[in-house]
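From the methods appendix. Each design record in this collection lists the tokenized structure first, followed by the designed amino acid sequence. Records were kept in a plain field format so they could be parsed without special tools. The example shown here is representative of the layout used throughout.

RECORD:
FOLD TOKENS (316 positions):
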């Protein structure tokens, strides 16, 4: 049993990771400043340390006895990052530097990091392989690319996992863990909320895609955490790997809406809106590296992501 620090473990993905790591017998300490996370999402079987990546002293106290770090904490709203680029650099990049500096004090060198497809920008190739030159189109993606490069430059045994679009929910022993972002910018929870709240906005219907709406690659949060556990078991001494996590298949916004209408048995009201600046037309992962290095492939379908989110949000 290893003691693992989960930064951002009160957030959507980190809380699921903490809960599944406890299920697998690990001793988990969650480190989170609750800026976008929720104290009641922290698995009660984990230890909770409320603190910020911007507080080196808190990081040092939380790292006592830890053998590996799974680092989810950070700011992740693309639109907000365009308005506040310095904040995104400060929290994400400087905060991660503080974390790595504190790990070094305790000779902890094992890390799995939440990177993002936003590091790639709008590449012209599809599917996207990890070796393409990243050219982020917003400060959020730039901050993730800066962190990947920082991790590569220090002597860590680390894996950066570049998530595409994470969706779905996890039923933990203490209840459902689901997306509780405010504002919610992710398509699947917003499609479901559109049944009872405002119509769903479709940002652009004139993209160069088969039906004119943006195409994205979705991965279920439980599959995603399974890849993290495989990554923890595949860390190699002083080596940094970058690995995409997606399904390898793309779905347009209209295809997601039709799946949701079928799964939910309800009409989803929609309204057409202008394109959002910086949105690529298509983002689909090459998952060959995840398969070869981690022996990982996703098991859960888009329909499953939609139905789990619906149940978790209590909108049945
Ligand atoms: N959700 C996705 O589809 C997606 C895709 C790609 C990458 N990611 C990355 O995965 C990670 C988790 O995403 P999420 O959707 O769970 O986001 P989230 O906002 O739900 O979780 C982030 C957590 O980090 C905490 N946090 C933020 N700043 C902190 C700080 N300075 N110190 C300590 N804790 C801090 C927040 O309170 C929150 O609990 C993020 O790094 C995000 O960029 C997410």
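DESIGN:
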């Amino acid at each position: 049993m290893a003691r693992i620090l989960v930064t951002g473990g009160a957030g959507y993905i980190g809380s699921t990771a903490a809960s599944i790591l406890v299920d697998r017998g690990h001793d988990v300490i969650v480190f989170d400043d609750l800026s976008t996370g929720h104290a009641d999402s922290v698995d009660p079987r984990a230890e909770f340390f409320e603190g910020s990546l911007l507080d080196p002293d808190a990081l040092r106290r939380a790292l006592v006895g830890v053998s590996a770090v799974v680092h989810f904490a950070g700011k992740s709203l693309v639109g907000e990052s365009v308005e506040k680029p310095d904040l995104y650099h400060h929290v994400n990049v400087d905060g991660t530097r503080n974390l790595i500096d504190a790990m070094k004090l305790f000779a902890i060198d094992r890390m799995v990091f939440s990177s993002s497809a936003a590091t790639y920008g709008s590449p012209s190739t599809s599917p996207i392989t990890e070796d393409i030159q990243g050219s982020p189109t917003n400060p959020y993606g730039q901050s993730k690319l800066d962190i990947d490069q920082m991790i590569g430059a220090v002597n860590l045994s680390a894996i950066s996992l570049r998530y595409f679009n994470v969706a779905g929910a996890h039923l933990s022993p203490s209840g459902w863990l689901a997306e509780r972002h405010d504002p919610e910018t992710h398509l699947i929870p917003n499609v479901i909320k559109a049944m009872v709240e405002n119509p769903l906005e479709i940002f652009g219907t004139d993209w160069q895609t088969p039906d004119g709406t943006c195409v994205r690659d979705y991965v279920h949060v439980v599959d995603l955490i399974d890849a993290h556990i495989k990554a923890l078991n595949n860390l190699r001494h002083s080596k940094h790997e970058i690995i995409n996590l997606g399904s390898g298949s793309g779905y347009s916004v209209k295809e997601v809406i039709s799946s949701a209408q079928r799964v939910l048995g309800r009409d989803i009201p929609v309204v057409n809106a202008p394109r959002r600046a910086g949105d690529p037309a298509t983002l689909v992962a090459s998952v060959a590296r995840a398969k070869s290095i981690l022996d990982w492939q996703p098991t859960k379908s888009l329909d499953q992501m939609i139905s789990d989110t619906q149940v978790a949000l209590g909108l049945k």
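APPENDIX NOTE: The mean pLDDT is 96.
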